[in-house]
Amino acid sequence: MSTDPATLDSTTREARIAANLAAVEHHFHNETPEGIDLAVAEYTDDIVWEVPARGLVLRDKEAVKQEYLGMFSSMQVHRMTQLHRFATEEWVFDDSIFEFTIVGDGIRNCPFPKGTTVSVRITHAFQCRDGKICRENGYEIWREIDDEVRVNDDVPETATSEAVSYTH
After folding, report:
1. Per-residue pLDDT of the chain (168 residues; tens, 9 = 90+)
2. Buried b (16+ CB within 10 A) or exposed e, 36-55
3. What DSSP element (H or E) covers 67?
4. Structure pTM?
């Protein structure tokens, strides 16, 4: 079977897109200390996990798991807003806003000190292969929550927003 998106029939395209969206949804749903093993199970063995704004590139599932656990232990989460999510046969894009207070030192190369409440606009580009995530790029824009100039997002009416109050 051809992997060139231009030569795939519409049923195959729809199935690949659905599988990619399902993998990303399952990954996000399990990005918790309790579910992290399920989240990283959505990765291929040759995963590339990259956060350019913080200078991070990881190429190992266990290293990514440990990175997540460090981040979780350093966040008191307040709100998550999903703005857009769409997919192709090879990529899933997710644009979200993540609001939390930094409560620890486990976010490597964090641009703000502990105690700062932030609004992080994050766009994920997930490259998928065979229904698994082979690359996760997280493009982060860090802003202090009360910065009325920089925290000015165009939130569509279709956005989903969940107020949460927990420390990972």
Report:
1. 455 665 667 789 999 999 999 999 999 999 999 999 999 999 999 999 999 999 999 999 999 999 999 999 999 999 999 999 999 999 999 999 999 999 999 999 999 999 999 999 999 999 999 999 999 999 999 999 999 999 999 999 999 998 876 555
2. beebbebbbeebbbbbeeee
3. helix 61-72
4. 0.90
What are 94's two structure tokens?
């997710």
* Tokens describing residue 162: 């969940």
Rounded Cα–Cα distance for residues 163 and 80 (Å)? 7
Residues in the chain: 168
The burial class, CB within 10 Å (0-12 / 13-18 / 19+), for 125 is middle
Geometric angle at alpha carbon 34, from 136 and 73, rounded to 5°: 75
Output the CA torsion sign for 66, 98, 57, 54.
negative
Contact 163, 81 (CB under 8 A): no
Contacts of residue 87, defined as CB under 8 A and 6 or more positions apart, other chains included, come to: 17, 20, 21, 24, 93
Name every residue whose Cβ is closer than 8 Å to that of residue 10 and which is 6 or more positions away in sequence: none
